Amino acid sequence: MLTLKEAFRHQKFLGELQTVCQNYLGSESFFTKKVEKHLRAKVLPGQTDEDVDISEPRRYTVQQVIDFCRLLMDEEEKLASAVHKAKSEMAFDLDTAVIVNRSRRELADRLRRETSFEATHSLRRNGGTGYVLDKDGKPTTFSYDIDVVTTLDFDRNQVKAQAQKLFAEAEKVSLEIDRALLAEVVDYEPKFDPNDIVQNVLDDFLAKRK
């Protein structure tokens, strides 16, 4: 048996194991054999040709890694089903709560940054051009400065209060989620220790198959 929090940690570890194995299978040096053919007889009759294996050393065979990947898939399926069952028996929808709370925190954080904005202005010297008629009635141009002023276009206190409310709601939901992760039980017996390193897990698996 695991808590939901432990189950999520095991799911992550299974995913990491799967990634490592897939990387093995995706490496050309792992799934190919490389041989140097020394063609001496072609140059000098009587000499003996020789094949030299220059393949990179491997701890596992391709089939061994495939077998381990299949085992991992079985465990991922079992654990996912057990997690789904545990979630379905909760008093609230955990996935929805996590997604909405993430959005709640992101919005609150954005609003907090916006309310900290201070008004600015930038002066563009001779940035504007105007036209007037001189004493003879002819159009004449003149230049003038332009001051660009940037200010908040909303009620700072009102938006700040909304951000604080969102943060408080997010914190409340986070506590409910944390309690659920520790309280809900997942009916699954793990095969691997997430504190272990991948190499050891693979070695242990293969040792048991010998």
Order of helices and strands: EHHEHEHHEEHEH
Portion in strands? 15-25%
What does the average pLDDT come to?
Answer: 92
Widest sheet, order of strands: 1-6
Individual helix count = 7
Residue windows where pLDDT falls under 50 for at least 5 positions? none
Supply database-style keywords.
210 residues, alpha+beta, 57% helix, 18% strand, flat
Care to describe what's here?
The two termini are 29 Å apart. The chain has helices at residues 4-26, 28-31, 40-43, 62-88, 94-115, 156-183, 198-209, and strands spanning 2-3, 35-38, 50-53, 120-133, 139-150, 185-186. It is an alpha+beta fold and 210 residues long. The model has no long low-confidence stretch (mean pLDDT 92). The protein has a two-stranded antiparallel ribbon with strand order 1-6. A two-stranded antiparallel ribbon has the order 2-3. Strands 4-5 form a two-stranded antiparallel sheet. The protein has three domains: 1-89 and 186-210; 93-117 and 152-183; 121-151. Helix 1 (4-26) runs antiparallel to helix 4. The protein is flat. Strand 4 (120-133) and strand 5 (139-150) form a beta hairpin.
Structure in a nutshell:
With 210 residues, the chain is of the alpha+beta class. The protein has helices at residues 4-26, 28-31, 40-43, 62-88, 94-115, 156-183, 198-209; strands at residues 2-3, 35-38, 50-53, 120-133, 139-150, 185-186. The radius of gyration is 34 Å and the shape is flat.
